[in-house]
Design brief:
By secondary structure, the protein is mainly alpha-helical. It has one domain (103-317, 327-467). It is 62% helix and 1% strand. The protein is built from 19 helices and two strands. The chain has helices spanning 2-30, 33-50, 53-62, 79-96, 107-124, 128-134, 148-175, 183-202, 221-239, 245-264, 268-285, 288-304, 307-313, 336-343, 364-368, 379-410, 417-436, 450-461, 463-466; strands at 477-478, 482-483. A two-stranded antiparallel sheet has the order 1-2. Helix 3 (53-62) runs parallel beside helix 8 and helix 9 (221-239) runs parallel beside helix 11 (268-285).
């Protein structure tokens, strides 16, 4: 019986290999890129309909590469699209059959995120012709970015895929008896881009060429820094947490690889975010041995950093005076201060509800030709320009709820130690992202935020649990590692001891 089952498995594996070889030959011979996507998508759909958690695992690994030339980018025939729609269909079919209860988005996300986002799309619509005029098609980008159809695809539909991914993951976690296993593809997905970056640097690429360094992988170099920073927090807290030794060892190896990849991006914002993560870890642990370990690890990392990366990280620190609101090419901020000064006055044109999604494209300074940027390189400025005061207040409130939920789940006794460690690291990475956002980042979903949406999916799975206030035990760390004050009452005079 065992022999026959092994024989069937071997024959199935052989058949899969033969089909893969035939498909690969056809793709190479006929140069039909979509054929590979169709075949792979069909196979993936079959597995996903059998168990939608397969879709959650595949999306976790593939989403960081969704804009990369490594994956087929044909419209419609896209492996990401196949996995996304098949997973959602599988969940809904199971619900209609009464097999499971679906986890939906928390109402705070609907009211404070989706509603302002959709309002920003409607407000932006009349401005799209100005965006088309300011950003016409280019040789590398033949489609006009702000043409209505392209705008909907790139600025609305694709970002919403990450929200759907978080929902799929939330349902996968609630459906699993051991949701900790879903952290395995998270670790693998974090290491792959880090290893790719390490390989690029070892091949001798010019780190100082910020426009082309890592561009062949699909994202801009600072975006890869954000991606790895969002993965570094959970890996750090897991590798020094209270899980099993093998898990901590695996997380430690992944954290070392991710740390090396992050530093080699030479992204100063990402390095600052990394330091924020380490600082939160030290504050929550409050052990001298951890401080010594952190200093030693930093010394080792600094010793092996290539010289060109070191030069890039300290660039402009000796010429801070060159940074001004008129200098668009200062070495420290690369003109960010000048860009902020030029874009900010548009806030007063529509301070209540903003000028719509991606309003930088029709900003007065961009239209007049004083600056030419598609993003203000400051997430908070982008929020107030696009959404106004009302949208900014809603979004900041939601960020507060996200941070509070992650922190509460990191101390929730009903969760396993591994999940508590994960949420502690996710909280640290989320706070670090808010620091990084002062010089870059997006408030709308983006590829670099894949691991943030992974964390949010985990939060959505336990959202109800995270909203229950729970008193910290006396003498236990709370907040960022500060101990609760215990008031000592001295006995009254004449009272019995």
């Amino acid at each position: 019986m065992i022999a026959s089952s092994r024989a069937r498995a071997a024959l199935l594996l052989l058949a899969i290999c033969m089909v893969a070889m035939v498909v690969g030959w056809l793709v190479n011979r006929l140069e039909i890129e979509w054929l590979l996507a169709v075949v792979l998508g069909a196979i993936a759909v079959g597995f996903v309909f059998y168990d939608f958690r397969v879709g959650a695992v595949c999306l976790t690994i593939l989403l960081p590469w969704s804009w990369s030339p490594i994956l087929p980018q044909a419209y419609g025939f896209n492996i990401i699209n196949f996995l996304m729609f098949a997973s959602v269909a599988s969940i809904l079919l199971s619900r209609s059959a009464g097999k499971r209860k679906v986890v939906w988005l928390p109402r705070e996300v609907v009211w404070c995120y989706l509603l302002p986002f959709l309002a920003a799309v409607l407000i932006a619509w009349p401005y799209l012709p100005i965006g088309q005029m300011n950003f016409p098609p280019r040789p590398n980008y033949p489609d006009a970015l702000f043409a209505p159809v392209t705008f909907l695809k790139i600025k609305v539909i694709k970002p919403m895929f990450f929200v759907v991914f978080a929902l799929i993951l939330a349902n996968a976690i609630r459906e699993s008896k051991k949701p900790e296993w879903l952290l395995l593809p998270f670790g693998i997905s974090a290491m792959i881009p880090a290893l790719a970056i390490i390989g690029e640097v070892m091949s001798g690429v010019d780190v100082s060429d910020r426009k082309h360094f890592l561009s062949g992988l699909g994202l801009q170099v600072n975006e890869y820094g954000t991606l790895l920073a969002l993965a570094a927090g959970p890996l750090l807290f897991i590798c020094v947490g209270s899980s099993a030794r093998l898990i901590r060892l695996a997380a430690g190896c992944a954290f070392a690889i991710v740390s090396a990849g992050l530093v080699l991006t030479a992204s100063r914002g990402a390095v600052v975010a990394y330091l924020v993560i380490v600082a939160i870890w030290l504050l929550r642990r409050r052990k001298l041995s951890d401080l010594v370990l952190g200093v030693a690890a930093a010394a080792v990392l600094a010793a092996f950093i290539p010289e060109q990366v070191q030069d890039r990280l300290v660039m402009g620190l000796d010429d801070v005076g060159a940074t001004s609101s008129r200098n668009t090419d200062d070495p420290l901020t690369k003109g960010r201060v000048a860009v902020w000064s030029a874009l900010a006055p548009d806030f007063f044109d529509s301070p209540i509800y903003g000028k719509g999604l991606s309003s930088t494209a029709w900003n007065t300074a961009v239209t007049a030709g004083r600056v030419w940027v598609g993003h203000p390189h400051n997430m908070y400025l982008s929020i107030v320009l696009d959404l106004g005061v009302l949208g900014a207040a809603a979004l900041l409130f939601l960020y507060y709820r996200y941070g509070r939920s992650m922190y509460r789940l990191s101390t929730e006794p009903t969760l396993s130690p591994l999940l508590r460690d994960y949420f502690a690291g996710a909280f640290a990475s989320f706070i670090a992202m808010l620091f990084f956002a002062m010089t870059g980042g997006y408030y709308t979903p983006h590829v670099e935020q894949t691991f943030l949406w992974f964390s949010l999916g985990c939060c959505y799975a336990y959202w109800g649990l995270a909203q229950i206030p729970r008193e910290s035990a006396p003498g236990k760390p709370f907040g960022l590692g500060v101990r609760r004050m215990v008031k000592l009452h001295s006995p009254k005079v004449g009272a019995q001891r």
